[in-house]
Write a sequence for this structure.
DNA sequence: GTCCAGGCATGCA
DNA sequence: TGCATGCATGGA
């Protein structure tokens, strides 16, 4: 992969194993929207991005070298060799055809606060509704980034809301979880940065102490927001997949179970 | 009307 | 420790 900066854009050539719709709309992130021209727009850490891909060339519109280095390189996981990872996953004959069919799913390194909130909202909920709730949350309490674009609101901002405020967004019974979560993060009772530095088991234990966070939500947050690629979320779809692995997960998933999980999750949603 | 969705807290054994 | 139950909401 090579990078250049032309006309204000970041241009990446020879990009391998990166499918935009599969990566941005596979249920790991809830804020990317496809545009009429096939590009995708979203806001990450308060910065708007429009990204498009033709063949092996990716264009990040209006992106400085600083923003690329500070945000997007890590967010899209560009330094990780997904070709090699996919080859390794395909040592398991069950996942091999799935990796081929949905080739190009990457794990996004999302902001830990946004990921944790999003997956608390996600519980016992469907993806369409999750997107709607998060969209209303950002429009109502986020900062305006550009026309119609808003940042994900900070814990400090949300710590000033009541349970009723969260209910008004359609969060249902999850409102009380979000209300306490925002106050605990804003008040320093929960230290997300500290959790990033722990081992997977220790980090999971910390997240499980949070009101409204169980094993599934913890694993999603760990995988999508805290950089733990071995976290393996099991929801109702993955429970169906697990029937195909009665003896547990294959050895070739070790260390990258979360990436395997995302391929299997996508397959399950389309086939089961 | 019933069932379901990237589940969890609670109470009870 | 494990299991049953209630929970908000909206689409199918």
């Amino acid at each position: 992969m090579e990078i250049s900066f032309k006309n204000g854009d970041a241009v990446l050539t020879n990009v391998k194993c990166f499918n935009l719709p599969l990566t941005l709309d596979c249920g790991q992130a809830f804020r990317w929207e496809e545009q009429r021209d096939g590009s995708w727009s979203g806001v990450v850490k308060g910065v708007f991005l429009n990204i498009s891909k033709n063949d092996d060339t990716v264009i990040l519109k209006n992106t400085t070298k600083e923003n690329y280095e500070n945000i997007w390189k890590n967010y899209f996981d560009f330094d990780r060799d997904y070709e090699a990872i996919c080859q390794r996953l395909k040592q398991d004959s069950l996942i091999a055809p799935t990796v081929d069919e949905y080739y190009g799913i990457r794990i996004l390194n999302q902001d830990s606060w946004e990921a944790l909130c999003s997956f608390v909202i996600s519980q016992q909920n469907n993806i369409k509704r999750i997107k709607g709730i998060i969209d209303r949350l950002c429009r109502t309490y986020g900062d305006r980034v550009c026309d119609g674009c808003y940042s994900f609101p900070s814990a400090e901002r949300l710590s000033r809301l009541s349970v009723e405020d969260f209910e008004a967004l359609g969060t249902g019974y999850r409102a009380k979880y979000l209300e306490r979560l925002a106050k605990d993060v804003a008040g320093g009772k929960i230290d997300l940065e500290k959790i990033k530095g722990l081992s997977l088991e220790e980090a999971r234990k910390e997240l499980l102490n949070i009101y409204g966070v169980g094993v599934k939500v913890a694993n999603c947050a760990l995988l999508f927001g805290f950089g733990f690629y071995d976290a393996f979320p099991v929801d109702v779809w993955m429970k169906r997949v697990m029937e195909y692995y009665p003896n547990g997960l294959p050895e070739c998933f070790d260390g990258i179970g979360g990436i395997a999980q995302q391929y299997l999750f996508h397959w399950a949603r389309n086939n089961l």
Q: What stands out?
A: Residues 127-141 of chain A form the longest helix (15 residues). Residues 27-28, 119, 122-130, 173-174, 177, 211-217, 220, 233-238, 265, 269 of chain A lie near DNA strand B (CB under 10 Å from a C1'). The first strand of chain A starts at residue 2 and ends at 6.
